[in-house]
Recover the amino acids of this structure.
């Protein structure tokens, strides 16, 4: 405990600076770990969203395929025959084509007889 009077004494500002430097380093390490962990979580969320998007695209393709199958006229005709429907095919001569262009008449149609 005895020291010489001519020995240089460490000033308190140096000790404070060293403690502050260690605190800053520790805070930097903690923040680095926090940001890295958040980066990993965001990457996992993005991967999960990508998987959901791919699943939805597959569902859309499957639904479109099923719609195409249900709208197939041969399948519809077969189902109508199996259900005993009174609907029958008509010839092409009976079909009327209607012009889709709007007419400029101001008449109003009525559903009541």
């Amino acid at each position: 405990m005895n020291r010489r009077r001519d020995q240089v004494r460490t000033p308190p500002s140096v000790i404070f600076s060293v403690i502050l430097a260690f605190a800053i380093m520790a805070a930097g390490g903690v923040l680095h770990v926090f940001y890295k962990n958040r980066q990993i979580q965001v990457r996992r969320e993005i991967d999960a969203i990508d998987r959901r998007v791919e699943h939805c695209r597959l569902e859309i393709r499957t639904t479109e395929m099923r719609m195409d199958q249900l709208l197939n006229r041969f399948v519809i005709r077969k189902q109508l025959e199996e259900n005993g429907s009174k609907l029958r095919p008509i010839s092409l001569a009976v079909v009327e084509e209607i012009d889709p262009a709007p007419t400029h008449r101001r008449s109003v149609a009525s559903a009541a007889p």
In short: DSSP finds two helices and no strands in the chain. The radius of gyration is 41 Å. The first helix runs from residue 12 to 70.
